[in-house]
Amino acid sequence: MAWTAPTTRITGELITAAIWNGDLVDNLDALKDPPSEHYELDESADYTTTSTSFVDVDAGTGANTKLRRDITTTGGDVFVGFTGLIDASTTNIITFDIDMDGAQVAGDNGICGYGNDSNPSVTISFCYLITGVVAGTHTFKLQWRTSAGTATLYAGAGTTNLDVHPQFWVREMS
Amino acid sequence: MQDILVVKTAVRPNNLDGVIRAALGEKTTGVSIGPYGIRAHLTDAADSADLTLATSVLNGHNSLTVETDKSTITADNSDTATITCSDAAIASDSDCDYAVWVDGVLFASGSDSVVSGTVTLTLHTSVVGEFMIEIRRQTGDYASGYVTVTAEAES
Questions:
Q1: Distances from the Cα of B27 to the Cαs of B19, B42, B128, B131, B139, in angstroms?
Q2: Distance from C-alpha of A111 to C-alpha of A95, rounded to nearest angstrom
Q3: Residue B77 has pLDDT above 70, yes or no
Q4: Where are the alpha helices (DSSP H) in A1-77?
Q5: Interchain CB distance below 8 Å, B31 and A51
Q6: Which residue of B has its CA nearest to A45?
Q7: What's the pLDDT score for residue A161?
Q8: N or C: which end of chain B has fewer CB within 10 A?
Q9: Model confidence band, residue A118 (pLDDT cutoffs 50, 70, 90)
Q10: DSSP letters along B3-36, please?
């Protein structure tokens, strides 16, 4: 159910069933069930990268596959989130960003990450508000990079004691 | 950015990043691996020849036959495993590179001669762990092959 902007009514105006259902019922339904997509990793292999430029973690094979999520919004803000467990092969800085419709949302070195000295696995978790997203269908892809060495994202592949299931989600908020 | 994707299961750890960077230099930003296979990331400066080379390297990953006479040795620095590669792909090569990882951490690397079409390595160690041995061509498609030898503690 898509959101439609309600009309300001005046005293004496007849509120028909159509008006009531459109302004109130349909819009309340839209608020209860906004455009939203999510994916939990339970893969056959963990992810690694040595790329020093941002690349897709796994954009799948089309809309709403793997760590690519597509939603059709009605114009407003979009909330994007990710939680996962990462590891590094050496002293490096691993960072994440979101690619929306072919462009990095945060830019520079991304949204957040972890700089480490090759210590054991670390949880990365972020929520990011993208404001003023125009109405339409939008593609969101999780991206990452490492400053050196190899970055690993555990993906439910059965790695001993690291068989975790990260989540990537997208939701229109307003 | 231009991505080369080869759908195959990668052996880990490996030296794909080192090979790609040695072959393409500034024209690559690295290699990614996942359930989708292996992806080489090339910059927009890479031309068709570079794309072909990157594809060849990815296709050559784990294509050499590498064997060991012992899959398990005792870590007494005496018990020795002999690792060989006599793959037809190296028949005309003069040398091959090798790398050894212990429990996923790079332990040693170097090169060895191909004699009568065969490269032969020996492994004896006092270090307990899982040894992953890679043998890799120095030219062409930089094809590689892998074998695992487990070094167990003395009983």
A1: 13, 6, 39, 32, 18
A2: 7
A3: yes
A4: 17-20, 27-32
A5: yes
A6: B35
A7: 94
A8: C
A9: low
A10: EEEE-SPPPSS--HHHHHHHHHGGGEEEEEEETT
